[in-house]
Amino acid sequence: MRWGRSVSDLYKWMLPGMRVKRWLLLLLAGVAAIGLGLAYILRDIYQTWTFPPIAYYLTLQFLSRPVRAALFGLAGLSAIAVAVFQLNRSLLNALHLPNGESIVDVLYRQRQRERGPKVVAIGGGTGLSTLLRGLKHYTAHITAIVTVADDGGSSGRLRRELGVLPPGDFRNCLAALANDEALITKLFQYRFAAGAGLDGHSFGNLFIAAMVGITGNFERAIIESGKVLAIQGQIMPSTLENVTLYADLRVARDDQVLVRRVEGESVIPEQGWPIDRVYLKPDDPPAYPGAVRAILDADMIVIGPGSLYTSILPNLLVPDIARAIRASRAFKVYVCNVATQPGETDRFSVEDHLRALEQHVGAGMVDYVLVNSQAVTPPADANYQMVTIREALPPNYIPLSAELVDAERPWRHDSQKLARALFEAFNKRRQQGISGVNEGR
Questions:
Q1: Same domain for 125 and 71?
Q2: In what order do the strands lie in the sheet with 244-253?
Q3: 48: left (phi over 0), alpha (psi -120 to 50) or beta
């Protein structure tokens, strides 16, 4: 078993792109140069000195010169291999590698991710962090664009009391993209249950708020937090404007349908009435420049999954973000939620999600729609329904389907299944030379 793993590790070291073979060859060239220099010295010594008879046997002179050269060369290569292996072990003993992995496995995965495409993920809440957990295994070039409309819980309190942008969704993304995800998630999600001023706050939110104080601004705080946690990728706000999300609800009273306006991202789903539209105040916030650049430079843009009205649309309602997505030549896909969300998308089909998107930002934002194909029957007391295609998607969308449901939480996506489905679709279209609907039809 150990021998088989050693052979497998040796094979991985030799794979293209590992950036190891060139230095190994340089090492061998250096050793050969030293050997050649020593050979010149030994030749002079051999010709001028008289050696005792034992030297005849120690230098294997009873064998032909080609045989001696092969034996000494093999012995030298073996010595180099053992020395490099033991030196490698000695240097890496101090490193903590997860699950007993070898350094070549870690390096191999990193090299594969470095060659991955540039992916922009747009959203917020648990949907975006779920997506990021899967994406980081395929590419190191990830940009998460996060809504800043959150105003509830710990994020809302810090926003009101310290004047910082809401850190909650950024906290979730930092944890999802961190190398030691399990520990960082536990640490960042830890909520203080007592203490004056601490009750209800999560450690991650306080960490980001402290970083804002140290660095002087929110965007720098997120960048430095990413460095501290060694995340795979980068996280950006859709805007730095202090925006508020509003919603117009359709309220039925006395056989009439009235429009009721509510303020605040956190209270919109609590009303229990269908959402007619959502919008930002101020209504034309400037986009974060780094987010626009990332979108225009992306190979793949993923919108969703996540709360349609309170996580996804607040990003797309930033005009320059929407314009950049339309202008991008990337593979653009909307990931539809696998289940409805109480208070936001009750009884919604895939078509209803797309209609809501078009109502707010117009048609043509994406070319592809990824839909769950796994049949799941919710429990009788569940407050959600599975989202399906009831009739047919509009002709300007190309449907993609895969089994995406998390076995333990069927109302959510499985991060690995989701990332695998996205990259399979992306690679297939790239091999075909197809980007969007216009090219594919």
A1: no
A2: 256-263, 244-253, 275-281
A3: alpha
Range of the domain at 32: 22-78
**Tens digits of per-residue pLDDT, 4-14?**
444 455 555 56
List of E strands, 205-345: 234-237, 244-253, 256-263, 275-281, 300-303, 331-335
pTM score, whole prediction: 0.78
Find where tokens 């180099």 sit: 80
| Alpha-carbon span 34 to 277, nearest angstrom | 76
Helices 168-177 & 181-189, crossing angle to 10 degrees?
Answer: 160
Question: Are both 306 and 362 inside the same structural domain?
Answer: yes
Residues comprising the chain, all counted = 441
Helical segments of 282-414, H only: 289-296, 313-316, 319-327, 350-361
* CB contact at 8 A, 245 and 280: yes
Residue 118 CB neighbour total at 10 angstroms: 18
Q: Are residues 268 and 321 in the same domain?
A: yes
Domain end among 30, 60, 78: 78
Rounded Cα distance between 241 and 275, Å, is 24
Give the Cα separation of 203 and 197 in Å (integer). Answer: 13
Domain count, the chain: 2
Residue 239 β-bridge partners: 287
Q: Is residue 93 one of the residues assigned to a domain? A: no
Q: What is the pLDDT of residues 178-209, one digit of tens each?
A: 877 778 888 888 888 766 667 778 898 899 99
Helices and strands, number each (H, E), in the chain:
17, 10
